[in-house]
Design brief:
Layout lengths: L1 E2 L2 E2 L7 H14 L12 H8 L3 H13 L3 E4 L3 E4 L4 E3 L8 H7 L5 E10 L4 H6 L8 E10 L2 E11 L16 H8 L4 E12 L2 H7 L6 E11 L3 E10 L4 E3 L10
Parallel strand pairs: 5-12
Antiparallel strand pairs: 1-2, 3-4, 6-7, 7-8, 8-11, 9-10, 10-11
Helix pairs in contact: 1-3, 2-3
Length: 252
Amino acid sequence: MKVGDFGLQNNGILLHQQVAHWILRKIEDGTWPPHSQIASEPDLAKELRVSRGTLQKAINTLVEERRLYRIRGKGTYVSAKILEEPLAQNLLSLSEALDLQGLQVATEVISRQIVLEFPPWVKKSLSLESNEPLLFLQRIKRVPDGPMAVLDNYVRSDMAPGIQNLDFSKRRLFDIIERDYGFLILWGSRVFDVAMATPELAKKLVVAKHSPLLYLEQVSYITGNVPMECSRVWIRPDRMRLKSVITREHTR
């Protein structure tokens, strides 16, 4: 059985897996772009000369993998590309992680100001004994499909004088800390959770109110174990998922 340049064959690979691969080829070569509707199941089954059950199993697999999504009463559609970011295992900024994937990312700066008042979690994260001046930086990261993440950063401005005057729409925060001010970011702590979109976040990320979002808290440390920066990040889960590669330590 042949379909275009792709053959469904008795090659040891399950038929529904071959069908799923054929669909992915259509997505990856741009025949079916993000958010486009794929052909109907009867038409696809006829074209591929497979049973409806085999086709449905292939589509169900891709829906579970979030490469396709269904709209009841309308059909099946191609999902926007979901990025798999290694943020759970490397101290990368969000921009650095996205650059590794070769994706075009635009940064919109919402706020960039020195503040003397901030939430208690910031004071605790940065080990401050008093309300010292900090840079508050809020940005939106946008990919070609639209807004992907909102980032709130607090940075020790006493250690980086004038940092509030720099252009964060074109430069990364970590690069500025390391290259402009000579600090080396050595390690950090991260906490992952799920958060519901507040009305403000929903507007910035173009999602419904109370939609689930990936949530990240971070503290970054420079030489001497000094906390330099802390942040909170809210991410649209339909545009990014976190990936971690882990190893098992054998004690026997």
